[in-house]
Amino acid sequence: MIQLFWIVVCILLWIFFLTIALPITITLQLSQTFRAFFFPYAYLYLIFPLLESQAVSVRKKTFELLKDSLVGRDHSKPLEALEIGIGGGANLHHYPDNCNLTVLDKNKFFEPHFKQNAKNYPHINYKKTVIQPAENMTEIQDNSMDIVVTTYFLCSCDNSDEVLKEIIRVLKPEGKYVCMEHDSFPENTIGLYVQRFLSPLTYLYANGCNPCTQPAKVIKRAGFSQVICKECILTHWTIYPIKHHLVALATK
Ligand SMILES: C[S@@+](CC[C@H](N)C(=O)[O-])C[C@H]1O[C@@H](n2cnc3c(N)ncnc32)[C@H](O)[C@@H]1O
From ligand 1's centre to the CA of 97, what distance in Å? Predict the structure, then answer.
């Protein structure tokens, strides 16, 4: 009876592998459009629920750091904010009051998910959605933003140095860039080997994400006048490959 059970399980696994997993993997490999279409579902319905129960405290800390840096602001004047890599809008809950928010993402397939989620946050004044890569944000004017926000974003940029240059360009003088990113393990640790081993998979299934990125290095060399970096470690075993997190606040 037990043998029969395992034979049935194996047959079902093979059917799943041959009819679902393999065709999806081949299509992801061959088509960039399918990768972009697939990622919002993989992120919002699988990765995000797993990650967010652990990461929400770091997200909160990120916005606390931002709000502390804005102490003394004139609340009657709206804050011009740009969030790059908005995804499904995981940060909307945390924005300071009286914000004019512009959102930018290179993946148009996130937009319906973001629009649906945005209905829950009517206090935010949405200015516009821009579908463009952050390496070349031609639709955002120079010196136009008080704050720029990114979370879980730099790991999947094609060129993070170019993105940081663009962020500095669009920030007003003294404007703030705040981010939360997962970070690489230190050199010569098992965790770093695990991250390197997983990176071809995350590239394919998480739309270009490289778990070994070192966001602090990129931000520090970008040319901000001041950079504050804080490291956080998430302890739950389910997110071991990205347990190291960085929260950073940079001033133009
Ligand atoms: C992992 S999701 C994070 C979404 C959201 N910020 C969060 O914290 O849940 C990364 C987002 O960044 C976007 N993205 C990645 N590289 C980008 C680029 N070069 N320009 C614009 N958006 C980019 C992706 O399309 C995706 O929406």
Answer: 24
Query: Dihedral of CA 240/67/209/115: which sign?
Result: positive
Task: Please write the tens of the pLDDT for every residue from 49-83.
Answer: 989 989 999 999 999 999 999 988 888 899 999 99
Q: Residue 189 C-alpha to ligand 1 middle, in angstroms? A: 28
Tell me, yes or no, if the pTM score tops 0.90.
Answer: yes
Q: How far is the CA of 133 from the centre of ligand 1 (A)?
A: 10
Least reliable range by pLDDT among 66-75, 106-115, 227-236: 66-75
Query: Of 39, 132, 156, 242, which is best to mutate to test ligand 1, by the most ligand atoms within 8 angstroms of its C-beta?
Result: 156
Show the tokens assigned to 103: 């959102």
